[in-house]
# Entry
Amino acid sequence: MIKIKRETRLFYMFVGLWIAMFVFLNVIPMLYSFYLSLTSYDGLTVPRFIAFKNYLTLLRDYRFIGSLVQTVKFTFFNIVATLIVSLLLANLLNKKMKGQVFFRGVLFLPYAVPVIASVFIWKTLLNRESGLINLVLGMINSKLSLNLLVDTPMVSLISMFVWQMGMSMVIFLAGLQNIPRDLIDAAEIDGASQFLIFRRITIPLLSPLIVYQVIVGIMLSFSVIVQPILLTSSPGAAFTAFLNQQPPYQNFFTLIFVFQQAFTNQSFGIAMAATWYMILVMFVLSLILLRATKRFVYYEYE
Amino acid sequence: MKKIYQIMLVAMLVVLLPAALLFPGEAAEKKVTITLMRDAAEMPDEVIQVFEQQNEGIKVNVVENDPTKLMAMIAGGNAPDIFRINGIGSPYWIRKGLLMDITASLEKSIDMSDLFLVNGMFRFDGTTQGEGPYYGIVKDWSLDYMYFYNKDALEEAGVPTPSDDNPLTFSEFTDMINKITLYKDGKAERYGFGYTDDEFNGYFMYLLASKGKFLFKDNGTKLNIDDPDVRALFKWWFDEAKVHHAMHNPLDPAPDWDGPLFQAGRVALQWDGYWFGPIINEGEKIPPNHFGFAPAPMYGSKRVNATGGGTGYVIYKNTKNFEAAWKFYEYYMLNDEAIARAKSGWGLPARKSMMKYVPQETAFDKYRLEQVQKELPNQIILQFTPYLRDSTLISVYNQQMELALKGEVDFDTALKNLANQIDSMIEKEMK
Amino acid sequence: MNTNKNTMTSYKRYKLKRNNNKTFQYVLIIIIVTIFIVPIFWLILSSLKTQAEMITFPPKFLPQEPQFQNYILAVTKIDYLHYLLNTIKLSLIYTLPGIITAAIYGYAFARFHAPGKKFFFNIVIILIMIPPVSVLLPEYIFFARLHLINTYYIWLLWGIGGNPLYIYLFKQFFSYFPKELEEAALLDGCSRFGILFRIFMPLSKPIVVTVFLHSFLYVYGDFMTPAILLSGEKTTLAVAMANGYVIRNGILLLPVLLSGIVIYLIPIILIFTFGQKYYIQGILSSSGVKG
# Structure
């Protein structure tokens, strides 16, 4: 009995600081944000309590609902594209070959390119009149040109994220290397094709990693705000007025809506309510995911 | 190692090392500190350093100009003492009681008749912009609806050059820009005209003023969307983008802002006024004498011109250091720095007495100054609603019209949505 | 020895197929790697052009004359070194306490049994799912009331509070250590704290390096947070670059910005080329990233 008690005490000694900071840095701002969501606050005068009116207003705001739809759409395609590419690349790079370390480095590097840099790089690549892609297309045939940023904004955006999939690839590499060699050898001896091995052995053994990456991916995708605006913005206003710029509606994500409501429309209350809706949606998605894959995920031990 | 040393080591790493990085030695000083939100390119650090040297007891804490940051600072209770806004949107700030009335201080410093009319953009008496006390002045200004045009582009398109003295009518102007736009194979090779993204609602306002009309009605509480002329202007702007590809817009985004494009000949006409001159002077590809500078086109029968932005600095109403802030204000807005700005040729000075510093060395500079002076008598003050910030209308326009541009909704629906959104935002403000 | 002709041929065929496969895969990798390098290559090329060259129509591939002065301008127009030092300072303020606290908290979650542990760990997991950007606004107002805006204390607090992702990583990693390790140490009179720092940590080099690099990279590249919470002299390089390469009236000098970005990427390239061994091997060998 005494042993357990001591262990409990130790645990809370170690973790106590974390709990304190968690309350201070997370709980309090979140409570404040929730409180603000129940008011009509314009950032300048005293907040006025209006209970759940903001939440109701948002449900009838077609722009807000639209932004949620687009955000979920983007999240889905972004995660699918990134994970597929990174998994395939990890698989390719898992074999010993000349320059393996170099290739891994190059494919990983874009991950480290910071947000503002990658946006500008992508702008100069995809621009219709002066971008590299159209430059090359133009060399083939002068009538050939793609207005990628305008016609396919979500694809343009996702391609940038796929370029930056380095971290994902490395995580999969780790997982792949943890697959016991004997399993694969045994399967090969039994005549299994690479495909079959991939499907029946690799993926199930990687499933916890996949789930983990999807959950983190949901969080990261919902946090995207700078890139969609800057990718199609007019550089004239540079960064200072970037919230006045409007991304194409396909890339109009909920977090952008939140910031616009707060800073352009002076409605902090609505902004906070929208944020809470967003968090709710993220949770629901993650929960659905966890429930749905519980059967399929193979944990080595728990 | 003994346990106690371990704990000490850890404590050091966790707290002291980073803390050491945090304290580069901040001496307590008996100075008054004012917070200034400035645009780094406009107001380089040297300008501030000179001020601090001249005023020993004042320290200036600098914050980068950022509208988002500004709102956050005000919401957080630590608003800057001096910050930068566009005169056109000043009624909003004045109505909210955020700006200090500086009329008395101005009167003590200078002779009020020395101020150009344009400073009225910072005057508001509750109903009319341009009347009432002064809440700020412009740092420099320009008559924004005159335009520079690329003579070669006009020649290429077979368009006669507009007169230096008589403005074109609006439809003549429209014809001209459509003819000089080059849109081939789905690529925008040359834009018909360039404009300032943040301020394009100014065009509507000045054009309407030529017919004696306004963008907002009922004391600024509603968008004047039922007026056919107002609708026509929105449609015009929309068609110029969608049908003629005449200017950069969401369907034809430009890779850079209009300046370099204009210098490279990819924008044939810049509808931005006098202040664009130095861009032409600094452009290496095309010499200045290939450009003309024409008076503002007329929508109605009255010949008008105005300033669309009117960037200036204001003092926060609840500042705790008014004297110090005013000292800086005088330095930057009224005295030495104002002269330096006038000399740079980027804009006209706020004070008439400083006009003699405006550059007139080159033929081009002389020419554009002459053109401006011809237009001065036609200057008016644009009227914006006190219930919205100036950037809001543009933002809402972008939000609503993009769908119409892409064909997702038709123009009239989008316009109705725009008007509804604006009107409901104003209503919320009025509560 | 198998002299059956058929078997030998089929084995040869198998080997041939394997070799073809291998070559094909190798070629595929080369193509993909080339595609991935293209944006960086275009970045460098563009940074050597003049602003006009970047937007002329029809577009040009190479600059007329490489504008190396863009790079000089990039480091002189803003006080590059100063902001770089700011960024490094800020990264360390966040990272160093962050690693230690994540290890402490992760250790506790991994090796102790206590009522309420599962509940709190679930909170850690939930915290991973909240994007920091969404609480940025209330946090701004919160920190403003505490007069912490435009100080680096905020990052220190975040470091002490621990990043849930790192806590999770440490917890997973530590949970794989055999119990015997601890029991032996306890018998020798070592405290739990001592176990953590004298036994577990030295064995966790890969995780530590991973967390260090990940966290450092995060602060180095972070734009939104310092943009809102810091200003002027104290801000990071990312924000300074975003605001700084402008001339009058907010006009952005695009090629200079691109040059600045190239320079900005150099430390990252260096760290990851040399640290790659640790970093990638770190994640590879830490089975802690699993499940």
User: Anything to note?
Assistant: The mean pLDDT of chain C is 82. Chain C is about 75% helix and 0% strand. Chain C touches chain A through 94 residues (CB under 8 Å).
